[in-house]
């Protein structure tokens, strides 16, 4: 590949197609070059700040460490309880099934952390 291949027009097309969600292979096909040539050019463009780096689509968004998102356990029926599900009864219907917390059980307890606390006698100051 000649040094003069990457013209501003081609760079612009790479940016446009990448932002539109095209793969490197598709961009390479459109430009009449290879996927790896596009890949290395995109690395350059990213370094130069021309091309924004979108998050890879197959990468899960990792929640900020130390601050897990608050998980609201959905009440489940007895049949839906799993081995590590909290067994705290939460909803009692007159004519419906008894529902259990279903949250993640604490080790050594039948309940999740909230219900483990709730199951212990409260100390009053
Ligand atoms: Zn619970």
How is this fold's topology laid out?
Blueprint: H1 8-19, H2 24-31, H3 35-47, E1 76-77, E2 89-91, E3 99-100, H4 113-119
Antiparallel strand pairs: 1-3, 2-3
In brief:
The chain has 125 residues and is mainly alpha-helical.
Describe the structure.
- The chain has 125 residues and is mainly α.
- Among the domains are: 41 residues; 44 residues, no CATH class.
- It is built from four helices and three strands, in the order H-H-H-E-E-E-H.
- The protein has a three-stranded antiparallel sheet with strand order 1-3-2, with no helix packed on it.
- Strand 2 and strand 3 form a beta hairpin.
- The protein is elongated, with a radius of gyration of 27 Å.
- The relative contact order is 0.09.
- Zinc ion (ZN) binds next to helix 4.
Unreliable spans: none
Largest sheet: 3 strands, antiparallel
Main sheet: strand order: 1-3-2
Query: How many β strands by DSSP?
Result: 3
Order of helices and strands: HHHEEEH
Helix percent reads 25-40%
Mean pLDDT comes to 82
State the end-to-end CA separation: 78 Å
Number of helices: 4
Report the portion of residues in β strands. Answer: 5-15%
**From the helix content, strand content and strand pairing, which structural class follows?**
mainly alpha
